[in-house]
Specification:
mainly alpha; three-stranded antiparallel beta sheet; 6 helices; 128 residues
Length: 128
């Protein structure tokens, strides 16, 4: 049975609605930059470790066969163990550029969402 969780989804500069593919489970408060990065890494880590084989395939597919291939992304599952993948995804230049687009000045309180609707690893990778 799905349960409701509090999530925080960033609003990107120039947008008016939260970007749900970057939503992370959180507590009762909106997140700051550092806390968001930690929550995003934890979220990615749980997705990756729940199915490392599928995560490997998704990362390799997005890194090599997407419209804008990213060899750095497809190389992560080849050279590192699954428990390091989330941290390495956050270190990608593309992730840094994406995170720099978050509008931290906007009032953006947490909201409730079914845990079945949390973004998948692929949802996050597609943002890169």
């Amino acid at each position: 049975m799905p349960k409701q969780v509090n999530i925080w989804a960033p609003i990107l500069k120039g947008d008016s609605k939260p970007t749900m593919s970057l939503a992370v489970p959180c507590g009762e408060k909106a997140l700051n930059r550092e806390m968001y990065r930690l929550h995003l890494q934890d979220h990615l880590d749980s997705k990756i470790l729940s199915n490392p084989k599928r995560s490997r395939e998704e990362m390799q597919a997005m890194g090599s066969t997407s419209e804008n291939p990213n060899p750095d992304l497809s190389g992560i599952p080849v050279g590192y163990p699954p428990h390091q993948w989330a941290a390495l995804i956050l270190q990608l230049d593309e992730m840094g550029m994406l995170l720099s687009q978050i509008d931290w000045q906007r009032d953006n309180p947490p909201r409730s969402l079914s845990d079945k609707n949390l973004p998948s690893l692929m949802d996050v990778l597609q943002m890169l």
